[in-house]
Structures are given as C-alpha cells and as structure tokens.
Predict the structure.
Amino acid sequence: MTDKKINKVLVVAQGLCGGGAEKFLKNLVEINHKNAIKTAVCSPENTTHLAPFFETYGVKFYQTYLVENGNAMTYNFFGKTIKLPFVENLFAVYELLSILKAFFLFRPHLIVISNTLPASLFGVFLCFVPTILFVHSLPNYYLTPNKRHFVRLITSKLFRNKFVTVSAYSNKMIEKFWCIPLRKQQTVPNGVKIQAENSFEKRENIILTVGDFIGYKNPETWFEVAKIFVRKYPTYKFVWVGKDHLNNQFQERIRAENLSHQLIIAGHSSEIATCYLKSKIYFHPSFLESQGISILEAMSFGLPCVASCVGGIPESVIAEETGFLAEPKDINNFVNYLEKLHLDNELYKKMSASSFQRIKDCFSFAKNEQNIMAMYQWAFKSNK
C-alpha cells in the first residue's frame, strides 16, 4: 500500500444474511487480511453463521446494542442499559451511539459502512475518522429535509467522508436523490473469484436464477417465461435458489399448472457453486438492481445471462456479447432469447466464453482488491 498506512478498518455492516452485502464483507475481510489490515465488524444482526469465517481471518465482532422499542431506544453501553426517547431529528445521534463501543475499543484508522438500507447509518460519519459509506441498494427516493441538511454537513470540508457504490448508475441515483456530487463518489464494482473453465458437456438443461424470491426480483415474469418455455422444451427446468419471502404463493400456482418438476423454487442453498456448475443459462428478470452480484457469479462459471436492462445490470452484461437484455415485463423477448441460446450451440459457446472473459477482465477478485485499496487511499483525501 502506498501513501497513508492503514492498519485497522471497522466495518459497520447491514444485510449479513447470505446476499450481496455479506459477499462484499467476506471479500473485504479477505482483502484486508492479505494486506495486513486488521478488521472488526459491528452489526445488530445475528452473525453466528459467520463465526468460523471471522475466526479464520481474526475478525473481532461487536454487537450493536441499540434497539427501537415503540417510542423509546434501549441502548447498552459498556454493560449499562440506557433508555432514550425516540426523536426523529436525532437519528444521527442514535446511529453514532450504536457503534461507539466498537469505535472506542477497536480504534480504527478507517470506517467502512456497508449499507443495505439507503439513507441509514449517516450518524457514523460523526466519528471524525475517514469514513466510506458503501451503498449496496439503489437509492431511489429523496432524503427527508433533516437528512438532506445532515448530508451537506458530513460532505463538507470539515470531514473526509466519501460515498461508494457498485455501478455508475447507482452513482447517478445518489447524485439525483441525495444531491451528492459525483466528485465525492466512487464506483467500486463487486468482484468474484475466477472459476476453473468448465466443459460445455457438463451442463444440464437448467435455467438458473439466484437471489431472494421477492417482489422486486420479478417472480411474476420468471413464472410466465418459465411456463411458456418448458411447455415448448420439456427437458428444461427453471430453478430459483434463494429465500422465499412470498410464503409459497407461487408454489401453489406452479402446482395448479402441473409444473412442479420443471419450475422449482429451491429456497436457500449452501451449495450455490454446484447450482452454477450444473446450469446452462442464467436468467435474471429483476425490476431493480444496483449491479447484481449473482449475475457476476454466474458469468464466472461461464453462463450466458438473460437479464433485465435496469439499474447497473447493463454495466455487467453486454447485450449480444455476454448475453441478452430485455425490459423486465417483456416476456416474449425473454423467451426468444432463451430459445436462441438453446437452439444455437455456437452462439451459446461464444457467449459463454465471453461471459467468463468479461469477469477475468473487469470483475475478478484481483481487480476488486485493487479497487478496494485505491478506495482506502481516496478516503484520506480532503473533501473539496
């Protein structure tokens, strides 16, 4: 590392439940460890499943003790329980209090806020050490007046605070909705580990989708596309891997269509790599994505991607080169693109190779490491 020597990084983390934010955290911890930087993690969430990983990399974990209970906030600070009245305009104070214990005990040189709830954890910026807010979810709404004024303060010359997100599209949304100029932002795309190149003969007729089964991921279009496709090509299966947040609503519709063996909502899997290895095509019809780390993972396994042309997805999937893009509700085009990849083996092989190459060129773990280390140094530059 050049310039400022950083020895300790505190990560204030949200979304540690197996999704993109957790994968980002794991990458960050590994990169820090490789560069002799100690990491501590502060989170309100249950991280029992991460305990072996934290132990392997020497990560110190601090639970945040700030619980909203009706009109009061219960806060545990060094063994003392304090009840505070909830006042909306004091949001920054509560957010700062939630991480003070970790801050004082760990004494970081730099704080990284890994944020899945846009416009939350702004109060951490008041720690007066260089702080980076890494925004994973798309900020698609305007800030309240009090938060807007607070953002103006924390991005002033008094602070060395920076905003980072995973795509140029997200940067523009932060500028639009939060009024933070692009010069105070940086784009650091997600990175994934390069897989061994796989034989095309190993693929099964599986069209895979990975991510929480939830409204904004567009299960309705997935269901309609899958229903049409498997009736035309009955050797195929559509498999969705991820937690079902819709309480089996689609399971009943699948049974009613007599397609239970071909449309599979598989739930969470700890063997996600096996799912990518077995599959032939990756399908991602989401309404909203800042980038879509599962798309990158699929491409790292050489899967052509058929995805919606929203958010940061077109920065990952190059239309007609590594896959195809369509509007989220464009059922006919999605079916046609999947059919092209099924019928044209040469096109399939070409797009598969292009997907794999794009990951190596732009979204590898090594590239991510370079970007993260550059991000750290950028955080120490003054705000102008």
Notes: The two ends are 24 Å apart (CA to CA).
